């Protein structure tokens, strides 16, 4: 079977009768069986269920009653609740836990006839940029298995890159969908904060977390967003705004005003090949008649400290619920309640998660609260206001997704160097605006380069239309 680039390609073969959902599932299962032992993208595969779902969708296709995602075989990051299925956030802390309910986004996918093939590896509790903090070991980049796929949705990106499923659903707090998509040469999309309900998403930093698709085409990202987005009685933070038919609005306008952050493109740490790819894109956009201008953004240096103060603070609170009492891991050698808490958390959480809980607890402590947490909230406001202002002046802001291409497993030992790799993705997260990473080329070693585009809040339709013109076909 050939490698499908989008659901519309799958659908034309389904309509022509040259394939069936059952055959698609067998194809992806075969790819998983062959590649997953090396790539470690899936933590668990549900073959029998996927086959049963496929047969049911085939029947609905024959009857003309199939949903908009019929034929789409997807994997879900191990932070999304799916009733009766293990949910571990790639952590020992949730060892043996099975979800009691299905989250809203996943339910909407199922209702639209997507077929879920398994759950995917990620950084532990989505904390990381390389998939190396997973309790289950790193997922590996399919282009070079000595390299990381990025993170935290690393397994989800590799699964799409290596054709183990057509699309994945990840989550993005500070780049977790966009950065691995860039490292793997696929499309990663973080919608506006609140666009997709988080009911059933394991919380990391609640004022940042968003669910987002990883796909081979922008058209599929649009379709998945359309299905998952919208108000939800189970999540009061989900926006009440109507959901446009994103997938029907993918024709870009002829003229856009595009800004690029000069300090980002000229920053010291930026890999010269990424810089060259960026400049080539900017030239080509100018050549197409768009207005392309350098903009000043004075807060680049404050982005990482602000993000890591606020998200660790929120994580220290969110992860307080894992105490060894109600569910998940319980230390076998505890002697009383206090030692049960301490030992379960010390043994159940990995080093990076513990580091963030400690950092977050510190910045929230009474004597440091104003110096760190309150100050970071103020800086976030400045970053948001400036970003919003730029996104009123320009239709889009473009910048690299990452400062480097996929690095080697084990290369970044210092946590701060790992944090610094998020420099370009956290802006959209701090500002709550939508951002997409699309593959725009590769470096000399053949490793993919991602271009990131941000738009104003709730301007997903314009963003997706513009992005669809940037990339015809994914690199991988
Ligand atoms: N979760 C994310 O969006 C990734 C980011 N690198 C973090 O570790 O916080």
TrEMBL record:
Residues 24-464 form the Amidase domain. The active site is at residues 77, 152, 176. Pfam families: Amidase. It comes from the Bacteria. One of its GO terms (molecular function) is glutaminyl-tRNA synthase (glutamine-hydrolyzing) activity. It catalyses: L-glutamyl-tRNA(Gln) + L-glutamine + ATP + H2O = L-glutaminyl-tRNA(Gln) + L-glutamate + ADP + phosphate + H(+). Keywords: ATP-binding, Ligase, Nucleotide-binding, Protein biosynthesis. SUPFAM superfamilies: Amidase signature (AS) enzymes. Its EC number is 6.3.5.7. Heterotrimer of A, B and C subunits. Belongs to the amidase family. GatA subfamily. Allows the formation of correctly charged Gln-tRNA(Gln) through the transamidation of misacylated Glu-tRNA(Gln) in organisms which lack glutaminyl-tRNA synthetase. The reaction takes place in the presence of glutamine and ATP through an activated gamma-phospho-Glu-tRNA(Gln). This is Glutamyl-tRNA(Gln) amidotransferase subunit A. It comes from Hymenobacter negativus. The lineage of its organism: Bacteria, Pseudomonadati, Bacteroidota, Cytophagia, Cytophagales.
């Amino acid at each position: 079977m050939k490698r499908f680039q989008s659901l519309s390609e799958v659908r034309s073969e389904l309509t022509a009768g040259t394939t069936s959902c059952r055959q698609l599932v067998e194809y992806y299962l075969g790819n998983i069986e062959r590649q997953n032992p090396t790539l470690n993208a899936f933590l668990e595969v549900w073959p029998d269920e996927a086959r049963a779902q496929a047969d049911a969708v085939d029947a609905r296709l024959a009857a003309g009653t199939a949903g908009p995602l019929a034929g789409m075989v997807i994997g879900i990051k191990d932070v999304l609740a799916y009733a009766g299925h293990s949910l571990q956030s790639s952590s020992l802390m949730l060892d043996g836990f099975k979800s009691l309910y299905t989250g809203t986004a996943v339910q909407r996918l199922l209702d639209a006839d997507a077929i879920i093939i398994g759950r995917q590896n990620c950084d532990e509790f989505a904390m990381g940029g390389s998939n190396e903090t997973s309790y289950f070991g790193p997922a590996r980049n399919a282009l070079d298995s000595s390299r990381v796929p990025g993170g935290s949705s690393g397994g989800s990106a590799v699964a799409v890159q290596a054709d183990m499923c057509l699309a994945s659903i990840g989550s993005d707090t500070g780049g977790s969908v966009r950065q691995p998509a860039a490292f793997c040469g696929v499309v990663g999309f973080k919608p506006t904060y609140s666009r997709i309900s988080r009911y059933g998403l394991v919380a990391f930093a609640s004022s940042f977390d968003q669910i987002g698709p990883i796909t081979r085409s922008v058209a599929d990202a649009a379709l998945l967003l359309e299905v998952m987005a919208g108000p939800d009685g189970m999540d009061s933070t989900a926006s009440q705004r109507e959901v446009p038919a994103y997938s029907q609005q993918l024709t870009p306008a002829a003229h856009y005003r595009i800004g690029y952050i000069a300090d980002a493109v000229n920053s010291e740490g930026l890999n010269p090949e990424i810089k060259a790819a960026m400049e080539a894109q900017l030239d080509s956009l100018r050549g197409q008649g768009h207005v392309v201008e350098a903009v000043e953004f004075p807060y680049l240096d404050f982005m990482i400290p602000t993000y890591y103060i606020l998200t660790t603070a929120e994580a220290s609170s969110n992860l307080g619920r894992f105490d060894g009492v109600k569910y998940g891991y319980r230390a076998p050698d505890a002697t009383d309640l206090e030692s049960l808490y301490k030992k379960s958390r010390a043994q159940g959480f990995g080093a990076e998660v513990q580091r963030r809980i400690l950092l977050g607890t510190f910045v929230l402590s009474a004597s440091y609260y104003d110096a760190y947490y309150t100050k970071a909230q103020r800086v976030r406001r400045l970053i948001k206001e400036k970003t919003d202002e730029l996104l009123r002046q320009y239709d889009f802001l473009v910048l690299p997704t990452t400062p480097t291409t996929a690095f080697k497993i084990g290369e970044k030992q210092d946590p701060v160097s790992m944090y610094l790799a998020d420099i370009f993705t956290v802006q959209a997260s701090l500002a709550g605006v939508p951002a997409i990473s699309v593959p725009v080329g590769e470096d000399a070693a053949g490793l993919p380069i991602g271009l990131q585009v941000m738009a104003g809040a709730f301007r997903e339709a314009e963003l997706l239309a513009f992005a669809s013109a940037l990339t015809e076909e994914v690199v991988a």
